[in-house]
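REQUEST FORM: STRUCTURE PREDICTION
Request ID: SP-0412
Submitted by: Lab K.M.
Chain count: 1
Length (residues): 318
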Amino acid sequence: MAAVEARLTELRTETWTALGTTAVLRYTGSDDPAIRAAVDRELEAIDGAASRFRVDSELSRLNAAGPARVVVSPLLLEAVRLGIYAAEVTGGAVDPTLGHSLVSAGYDRDWRELTAVPADAPLGLGDRIVVRRRRTGLWQSIELWDDPPGVRIPRGVSLDLGATAKALAADRAARAANAVGGNGVLVALGGDIATCGAAPAGGWLIRVTDDHRAGPEAPGQTISIASGGLATSSIVTRRWLHRGWPMHHILDPRHGGPVQTPWRTVSVAAASCADANIAATAGIVLGRDAPDWLAEQALPSRLVQLDGTVRTQAGWPS
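STATUS: Completed
RESULT:
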């Protein structure tokens, strides 16, 4: 890791907390506060538009409106459209209509305020059997309008855009930062990473681990990307206890409970952070079908089983 750290010192780097996770900004060239300001504006905008935890957000207003048509900002319209696109391309594996299910699982506020799962608790959900069923495909009934921007959601549906909005924010923030002065830019929001502009020599170095908060000594792999985005979805990081049961934030749309999956972590590289995030989340949800589905998409992928066994494919370095 010494060589990696030395190269990173050639870049401008800032780290702070935003959107309930760690934000990292790296860019080439001289120090320019306007670049960080451009990123902050994008993150503040997506929080005000698409946060499920803010009562004053546009998303909260939309969810409270029931089946009424609601005029929204172009940004929220873009975020909802991306959520629907995610469901379309994954066959419903990544579903934006799981808001009520997440609340039922205890995820009704920022996960850092929830009761933590003991560190020695197993990652799998054991022999727990979820028998309830929910109506799937509700995302197909969401209606959108462009002029003026508007959304109507089906009665009884609550949207959650957590699977896509943070990646959208990373893409938008990287583009906005690059537009300031043409610098090569990387924006990371937790496991969601977007780039824009020319990469530094050797590409953007990224440490892929179960937990983005882990240090360079944590088990994982260091890779580089020259453009596009990279995302890691994991059942390791956002875990909490609800009514005595361990929960995680990636749900199975068929029943609305935490998905039973053989993967602790799925990482994907794609043309954008949003595309990478959608595919990585789908990989967790699709379980044993994930390798074949990801291969069909021709997306470089790294899948880590619950026991730590690593599988790479489609050009991801082994």
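NOTES: The chain has eight helices and 15 strands.
Reviewed by: T.R.
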